[in-house]
């Protein structure tokens, strides 16, 4: 059984994102991640996704 490649995470300013036109990526606006609770909210949001 083969496993998929591990997920990679990158932090980019929108203008500096080399893959900004690639719709295969899921983007989280950095300005929405200021506090620990924000990370927990996004984690809960992502856990609702069927692909995760």
Structure description:
It is built from one helix and no strands. The chain is an all-alpha fold and 52 residues long. The radius of gyration is 13 Å and the shape is flat.
Overall SS class: mainly alpha
The oligomeric state of the chains shown is single chain
Task: Tell me the distance between the termini.
Answer: 19 Å
Helix content: 10-25%
What sequence of helices (H) and strands (E) makes up the elements? H
Could you say which overall geometry the principal axes of the C-alpha atoms support?
A: flat
Overall average pLDDT:
81
Strand portion, in percent? under 5%
Question: Rg to the nearest angstrom?
Answer: 13 Å
The largest sheet is: none
In terms of per-residue confidence, which ranges show pLDDT below 50 for 5 or more consecutive residues? none
Number of strands: 0
Task: List the total number of helices.
Answer: 1
Helices and strands, with pairings:
Blueprint lengths: L35 H12 L5
